[in-house]
Amino acid sequence: MWVSPEDVLLAGALWITERANPYFILQKRKGHGDGGGGLAGLLVGTLDVVLDSSARVAPYRILYQTPDSLGYWIIAHGTSRKEITEHWEWLEHNLLQTLSIFENENDITTFVKGKVQGIIAEYNKNHDVKEDDDTDKFKEASAKFRKLFGMPEEEKLVNYYSCSYWKGKVPRQGWLYLSINHLCFYSYLLGKEAKLVVRWADITQLEKSATLLLPDVIKVSTRSNEHVFSVFLNINETFKLAEQLANIAMRQLLDNKGFEQDRSLPKLKKKSPKKVSALKRDLDARAKSERYRALFRLPKDEKLDGHTDCTLWTPFNKMHILGQMFVSTNYICFTSKEETMCSLIIPLREVTIVEKADSSNVLPSPLSISTKNRMTFLFANLKDRDFLVQRISDFLQQTTSKIYLERELTGSLNSSDDERTFNLNDSSVPTATQALMTMYRRRSPEEFNPKLAKEFLKEQAWKNHFTEYGQGVCMYRTEKTKELVLKGIPENMRGELWLLFSGAINEMATHPGYYEDLVEKSMGKYNLATEEIERDLHRSLPEHPAFQNEMGIAALRRVLTAYAFRNPNIGYCQAMNIVTSVLLLYAKEEEAFWLLVALCERMLPDYYNTRVVGALVDQGVFEELAREYVPQLYDCMQDLGVISTISLSWFLTLFLSVMPFESAVVVVDCFFYDGIKVIFQLALSVLHANIHQLLGCKDDGEAMTVLGRYLDSVTNKDSTLPPIPHLHSLLTDNGEPHPEVDIFKLVRSSYEKFGSIRADVIEQMRFKQRLRVIQTIEDTTKRNVVRTIVTETAFTIDELEELYVLFKAEHLTSCYWGGSSNPTERHDPSLPYLEQYRIDVEQFKGLFNLLFPWANGAHSDPLALRFFRLLDQNGDALINFREFISGLGVLCHGDLTEKLKLLYKMHVLPGESKPHIQLFFHSFLIRSPAHRQTLETATDLHCVSVLQSQFIELCKTLYSMFSEDVAEQELYHATATVTSLLLEMGEVGKLFSSAARKDNNPETKSETSVCMRDLTNPKPMQEMFVPTCLENKSSPFDEGKGDEGCEQLPPMQDIKLEDSSPKETGTSSAMLISDDETKDDTSMSSYSVLSAGSHELDEKLQCEDIADDTVLVRSDSGSNGDRGNSTSIDKDWAITFEQFLASVLTEQALVHYFEKPVEVAARITNAKNVRKVGRTLSMSDYEISLSG
Questions:
Q1: In angstroms, rounded to a whole number, what is the distance separating the alpha carbons of residues 195 and 203?
Q2: I need a labelling partner for 1019 at 20 to 30 A (CA). Which of 296, 345, 659, 1151 fits?
Q3: β-strands 477-478, 342-347: how paired?
């Protein structure tokens, strides 16, 4: 290809000149091509790999040089001699004569450079090549990556790094390539090549470690291998990127969302590093946005635009606090350098004025932002202040237009919010317009004393806090805010502050009317989720009066159903009802819905999907934390298996199901403020408080009793609520009740002992556990599928597991690089195990070619298509693993009858077959008692006949199946004999079919009986049925002939098959070729079957001699769709399965072909090792063997 001219210092170093003229030199890289160039070639090849030279990909190049200059410019390079020769010839024909006209060398150089750049620009224009941000160096690396590993264009390289790969005790220096779906390594040292390819989806462990010998190591583990990489220039960047890509792969396995590429990722606005790919920059931006959203609890679609260091003036302590400002599409956020000192969230929808204040020595580059609630925030020490103000102004303009649009839409739809809320019900049940707790608060007279006074003081403390630090979403969040939360949020402020701290307030403000619309759409709809919701409604806090009447139950039903319709991937999961019922107690219905959204989609990710993956991940994190923080207890708990049992219920319900209600809501207060770390801290505190009792437990039951009694004793002495009976099953051993534990002391103790647990550390641990959990789930799914199918097939368990891996890998590969159907349609984790992965016809063709014995290269696709249609029982154009195995099992382990039955069924198209009168040919065609018994067992298809058009396709299939077999000619002869035999049967059967229709005519009965009598005393088979060339003339029994169809059927003995004339008999004529003649003619060119048409002979089925391959082709390109109605197809002609089976049994070559055993293990091994460019990539965790 042509390249932009670049200077080359030494033209001869490591290159061999092959052609030259006064202006241009064509060179080849040393060591490339035949011979390899000896030791010098090996050294050059090694240098190219180690130094990442482009010559590894493009070993040919053309240099430009002026006669008197010492400088050279590379103007083209090529991967092959053919490509570079074309460029060379173009230069000789189009430029050489022109260059000789110039007198000045500078003019020549300018002209050549301009010409080459013009060619490149023209090529880009004609081929619609879009300019991208990737450097030429990175494009070369991408091309090299695809060439080395046979990857298609769709497989995008993200970045590549120099490193060493340890094979045994020997390191191999090379390059690690990280693409969207694969981790690859390539090394070439002194003639020894090493390649490694691992799919991200197959990685079970990815960790960065350090040893005495190797300080920085990345260890990549799969189910079968462990790979170690070292000597990185930037190990942190490499590991972070690998971690991110593996995380995306796990997300794909979990719910397919990873396949939906987010093309709206922000490009970095300034100073974007050009040494990495655009894709790498986008992934970096995605990672930063995720951290930004998690830090400030922002909506899922918020994307960070940029951040900068600055100071914030805090009026409550009269200080300038150093920190960072973050700007995104809809928010301006700030966090101090000291984590707990201050944080701030300013939604742009609340901003009224953004202005640059006057700079001074005390306050350089200040920026003032005012909001609707009359708060003003002063930032200073801003770099690029003008640029920042411009960005904020742009986002403000977009936000304003959005607000106006929403007002117009919602204003035209409803005039009264209250009226809309009350219309949510389709029955007379009243709607809760406020938090249920305020409607069902019961107070006893004796409670109007110290507890109420304490509650009043708490409310006052929060009101004072709001006065000093601001109220609402723009509040300054400081250490004092956290202190107030730990002391307990007042009952009547809980809903407001939960909304604020969780970030749900932002989503609710930006989606007016969304909840009401969702409720209206979901009303009256029924599915699996709504059934489960109905079942659990009366189990949700039944002890609370708010859920002992229809109002509370109806509100709970609406919120859960609306969420199930919003997020079908989650739908409904047990434990959601308990959490939602608590949210409804303290928040209005719509607020409770948005709190549930924040909980399920941001704060507890993947907790409530069908496989509670998030809870299992955090269970693993909790085990790691227990090992670190309570090591003396960890081994004991592991032996008892308690950690996994207790943690699931604790995490899923945020302790609501295991603690008294009034105590558990304090935990929820802290959780909404500080996130998941609160739950981990509290769980560790519970273990730590019971450490001695747990160490003395002998079994898991005893340990559960200890923990259950402890949690039941946790009380909230400040609660103004009447005691609500706790329905958690009290695990007691009839001993003394546990002393009361104050919830506030327990929470504070958890912060003091385990408050050092950081959110970013938890995320790191979650990644590690997510790999383990999802791969464990995948392995469990595989085992369950195999266990279900193993009794239905002759495959062994090991073979089924290998086949499942291949089947799943084919699904994933098509998800990576495209397929004819949507990945979401083919993979649904909520389905039963057997149906979770499904493949479409294109994927099936790939597996058919690799695994099925009938596949034979060029002719495989039509047969694979027929096979797929047969296996696709429900007609959804997808087949699951059970259907796939049922088809493969017949071909690999079925007997001759089953295989032929399958072949026969593939050609019986729905709606075109018809019942056929049984003929009596079978009995004398069977050569052995064993084969006669085989025929007798094949009775389920006796009423289904193959029509003539289907028979033609069956013949074509048979011929194409044998085209690459070692006994090809013998099989062709046998097929020709069987085909001729079946054609004769069809013709004679047609006479019987017509005779049956004339059964009411007494004149024909005696003649029909003569036919039958003759058939019971047949002639020798060689005389009666031989390969034939049929030419069907008009038949008196064809439909549409009117009264002519009433002619008598001539006696069988009068039918002279050898030289019958249509004029004499009115039936089809047959020209016979002797059996010996047929067998001598090895080319089979004499075998020609004309279609048995009633009127026209324009459609023909011919067997032509094409080199060594004989293929049946139709001489007219008639469409398949019209074949059934074509006048050249005889609709009365048909054969049955018994006839087909009996005919095949007469030919030993065919019997041997269909009865020969199939080496299943060898086919599976081959399928795993085959590596093809494009969609059929080698399978799960394939590793290309290291040469040398």
A1: 17
A2: 1151
A3: antiparallel
DSSP label of 524:
T
Which among 244, 1153, 315, 320 is positioned nearest to 770, based on CA atoms? 244
Under 8 Å between Cβ of 301 and 258:
no
Give me 382's structure tokens: 């801003």
| Ranges of the chain whose pLDDT falls below 50 | 35, 50, 52, 54-56, 131-133, 258-274, 412-428, 444-445, 447, 727-733, 911-943, 1000, 1002-1127, 1171-1188
Q: Residue 436 burial (CB < 10 Å; 0-12/13-18/19+)? A: buried
- Pairing of β 1100-1106 and β 1109-1114: antiparallel
Q: Select from 891, 810, 809 the least CA-distant residue to 846.
A: 810
Q: What is the DSSP string of 283-338?
A: HHHHHHHHHHHHHHT--TT--EEEEEEEEEEETTTTEEEEEEEEEESSEEEEEESS
In the chain, pLDDT over 90 holds for what percent of residues? 24
DSSP at 761 = H
* 919-to-452, 898, 989 alpha-carbon distances in Å: 98, 22, 7
What residues are paired with 257 via a beta bridge? none
pLDDT at residue 810, rounded to an integer: 81
CB within 8 Å of 424: residues ≥ 6 apart: 431, 516, 519, 520, 523, 558
Contact 311, 323 (CB under 8 A): yes
Rounded distance, CA 708 to CA 729, Å? Answer: 8
pLDDT for the residue 392: 92
Q: What is the pLDDT of residues 363-385, one digit of tens each?
A: 888 999 999 988 999 999 998 89
**Rounded-to-integer distance, Cα 493 and Cα 545, Å:** 21
Contact status, residue 380 vs residue 311, Cβ threshold 8 Å = yes
With residue 767 as reference, give the H or E element that holds it.
Answer: helix 759-789
Tell me, yes or no, if the pTM score tops 0.90. Answer: no
Residue in the structure block whose two tokens are 């490591």: 14
pLDDT, tens digit (0-9, with 9 covering 90-100), for 495-534: 999 999 999 999 999 999 999 999 999 888 888 888 999 9
Dist. CA 568–CA 570, nearest whole Å: 5
Q: Where are the alpha helices (DSSP H) in 572-726?
A: 576-586, 589-598, 613-629, 631-640, 642-652, 661-674, 677-689, 691-695, 700-712
d(CA 437, CA 68): 94
Query: pLDDT by residue (tens digit) across 540-598?
Result: 888 888 888 888 899 999 999 999 999 988 889 888 999 999 999 999 999 999 999 99
Handedness of CA 391, 397, 400, 406 (dihedral sign): negative
Rounded distance, CA 360 to CA 17, Å?
A: 67
Amino acid at 1124: G
Pick from 329, 332, 306: which is nearest to 402 by CA? 329
What domains can you pick out in the chain, each with its CATH number?
A: 2-126 (no CATH), 136-255 (2.30.29.30), 297-407 (2.30.29.30), 450-603 (1.10.8.270), 613-756 (1.10.472.80), 770-932+941-984+1136-1173 (1.10.238.10)
Only one residue has tokens 């180690």, namely 50
| Rounded Cα distance, 493 and 290, in Å | 30
Sequence-ordered list of residues with C-beta below 8 angstroms from that of 303, at least 6 positions apart, any chain = 264, 265, 266, 285, 289, 328, 329
Q: Are the CB atoms for 391 and 323 separated by under 8 Å?
A: no
Q: Which two tokens stand for residue 156?
A: 């995008």
Alpha-carbon span 499 to 594, nearest angstrom: 8
State how far the Cα of 657 lies from the Cα of 79, in Å rounded to an integer. 67
Its sign, for the CA torsion 716, 719, 724, 727, is negative
Joined tokens for residue 306 = 């940029």
How far from chain centre, in Å, is Cα 891?
30
Tokens standing for residue 456: 């009043």
Q: If you search the block for the tokens 């309570």, which residue do you land on?
A: 630
**Minimal CA–CA distance to 461: which of 437, 493, 496, 505?**
493
Helix, coil or strand: residue 1068: coil
